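Notes on consecutive records. When two proteins share a document, each keeps its own sequence and its own C-alpha cell line. Never mix them. Below: protein one.
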Amino acid sequence: MRHWTEHWMFFHAFVISVAVAWFVYSETNLLPYVGIFSFGILFLLNSIKNRSLNFLLEAANLVSIARLVGLFFILFNYKYFDAWLIALIAFAIIIADGVDGYLARRFSTVSRFGSYLDMETDALFVMGFATILFDLCLFDYWVFGIGLIRYFYFPIIYFAKPVQKSEERNFTAQTIAVLVMISLPACLILPSHIHQPLVVFAAILLAYSFGNGFLKEMKATYTT
C-alpha cells in the first residue's frame, strides 16, 4: 500500500509542472504561489495524519521550514534586490541543507515527511532558479529541463512501481545535487563565460544522476 506522501508527491509534481508550463506560455510566474499552496497541503496532511503539530517544533523541520521561507523570499523578490544578496541567501539555503539532516539524526526525528520536505525544497530550489535564470534572460528554454527533471522522474516511478520505498540519497547523487544547486545562483554573480559552461556541466551530471537512479529503480522492481 502506498504511503500518503507518495500521492502528495505526484500531486506536487503535477502542479509545479503546470505552473512552469503556464509561465512559459503566458510569462506569468505562478511558481511561488503554487509552491506555497502545495507545501501547505503537505503540512496540513501531516498534521491530520499525526493529529498533532509537534512536528513543526522539531529542530530539523524548523531548519527545513526556514530554508523554504528563504526560497519563497527569493522567488518573490529576485527582481527587486541586488544579485549578490539573492545569491548569498541561496547559498545559505544550500548550507542549511546539510544541517536539517544532521539534526534529524542527532535528535532521532528522522521521518518520511521530513525527508520529502527536505528533498522537495531542494527540487523547488532548482526549479525556481531555472525559472529565474530564464526570466533574467541568462539562459534559453532548455534551462527548464534542469528544474523539471525531478518532476518528470517521480511520476514515472510512481506509475512504474506498485509501492515505492522512501527515497534514499547516495553520496554521488547528493554531491551532484549540491553542485547543481550551487551552480544556479552562482550565475547571478559570475560572468557568462564562466557560469554558462558551469550550468551545462551541472545539467549533464544531473541527467546522469537521475538516469542512473531510474535504471536502479527499474532493475530493483523487475528483478524481484
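Protein two starts on the next line and is unrelated to protein one.
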Amino acid sequence: MKKLILPSMITFFFITGIEVHADGHASNNGEGAFNTLMVKSKDIEKYVARLKSDQTVFKAIGTSDAGVCITRSGNNHEGEMFVWNAYPDVATAMHANTIYNPYDAPKEMKKLRKVKYGVTWRPLKSFRLDPGWERVIRVKVESEDMNAYVQMIKDLEKAIIDSGYPAFNMGVFVPIGGGAHESETLMIRAIMPTAKEFGELVDNYFKGASWGRIWEQSQMMSEVTSDTFEECEQIYKAE
C-alpha cells in the first residue's frame, strides 16, 4: 500500500500540538513553526558570513531565531544548504513570507546563492531548538498511522535520552506549501551536539542498544525517501 502524508488541514485536526521556545525549552502542547529557504550556495562560507554580518532581513521579518543548515552527507547537489527562521505560530511564519522576497535580494547576495524553494514547517511533537549535527530523514507515513508514528518517535527520543544521551533531541515536521519538493513527506530530525557524539550513538545502536528496536519499528511504519546529515547552527536571536 502506498504510504502517504498530506499536509492539509485534516492533518492538524488529529495531530497533537507542540510549542517551540526561543529559550531552548519545549512543551508537549502548543504551537510553533519554521520557514526554510533552500538554496544552492556558490560559496557557503562567504554566504554564511554575509548572513551573520548583515541581519537586517531577520529583524525585518520578525523571526525570533534564525540559522543555517549545511548538508554534509547525502547531498543532492554541491552547495546544498538552507536558512531557517523560527516563529511562534504558522500565521506569523506565513505572514513573514509576504514581507521579504528572496528573489529580490541585493546583487551581492544573489552572487552567493541560488534559491531552490521555500517551505513552512509545523512541528508535530515537542522540539528543543538546539542545533547541532543532525540526521535528516524524510519519510512517507499512512495517514491512519500518523499518531502512532509520532508517538513512536517520542518514545524513541525518550529511550535514547534515558540510555545516557541527555543532549539527544528529535523533531517531526509536516511541510506546508512545499510544492513538489515536500508535498507528501514528513521530515524527521535526530540531533546531537557534534558529529563524533552522533557517531557514538550509531555505534551504540549496532552494539545492540535496547532503543534500537523502537527505531526499527519506526522504519517498518514508514517509507524513507531521503537520508542526509546536516551541520546546523543558530546565527540570529531577537533581542
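For the record: The first strand starts at residue 19 and ends at 20.
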